[in-house]
Design goal:
The chain has seven helices and eight strands; from the N terminus they run H-H-H-E-H-E-E-E-H-E-E-E-H-H-E. By secondary structure, it is α+β, with helices and mostly antiparallel strands. The protein folds into two domains: 48 residues, no CATH class; 162 residues, Alpha-Beta Plaits, CATH 3.30.70.560. A hairpin with a 4-residue loop joins strand 6 and strand 7. Helix 4 packs across helix 5. The longest helix is centred in the N-terminal third of the chain and has 29 residues. It is globular.
């Protein structure tokens, strides 16, 4: 009897272990992908990203105070830091003459093409936070000196017109310091309102307007 009881107990333990294993399997199968990926980090980016809307945006970056190139680099790093935006391509760096308010130092400018899960207004909030973190203060002169200036030029092919945000940027087609860097990245891209590509808009500017020099 003792032997038979011992065998029965072992079998019972094995049976209960099997039941527990099946319970765990059912629980794991019921966990949504986004949560289960935290258990298996290797799948996080691939599966989670497929569930999100990925947008493409072009961001103009500029500075004419302090270490201008370093300010632009800090702005770029800040924009990408939290993983909600990824750099697709960057233009060259350019030294550019000031526009509208000319009594100030030349700028350093470039353009970034990014992919982001943020919407346009979320991206605007992100940009404003990055500018502040790098040291930008409230403007006392419109178009005046800036430690860092980040502007959304395009966001997919969306057209946004509000008091706080306009996309495409309302003056980008007149700005050599925007058009030249964009042409480094995607010269054939068409302006959603004007119906012209970036190369055509750049070629349409007068040669005497807005000096620009590539930084080697």
């Amino acid at each position: 009897m003792k032997g038979s009881r011992g065998i029965g107990f072992i079998e019972l333990v094995e049976f209960l272990g099997f039941i527990e294993l099946m319970k765990r399997k059912r629980v794991e199968d019921s966990i949504p992908t986004a949560i289960s990926n935290t258990i298996n980090p290797k799948n996080t980016m691939n599966k989670a990203t497929k569930r999100m809307n990925i947008h493409q945006a072009f961001i103009s970056v500029g500075s004419n105070l302090g270490d201008k190139i370093e300010n632009c680099r800090k702005g770029t790093k800040g924009l990408l830091a939290d993983g909600r935006a990824a750099l697709v391509k960057s233009s060259l760096f350019y030294r550019t003459s000031p526009v509208d308010y000319e009594d100030q130092d030349w700028f350093v400018n470039l353009v970034l093409k990014i992919e982001t899960t943020l919407g346009p207004f979320e991206l605007l909030d992100k940009i404003r936070g990055v500018e502040k973190a790098v040291g930008r203060k409230a403007n006392t002169v419109r178009f005046g000196p800036r430690v860092l200036d980040l502007d959304i030029i395009f966001f997919d092919d969306q057209v946004v017109q509000t008091d706080t945000l306009e996309i495409p940027h309302p003056r980008m087609h007149k700005r050599r310091f925007v058009l030249k860097p964009i042409c480094d990245i995607e010269p054939s891209m068409v302006h959603p309102l004007l119906g012209k590509n970036m190369r055509s808009l750049l070629d349409g500017l007068k040669d005497s307007e807005q000096r620009i020099v590539e930084i080697q």
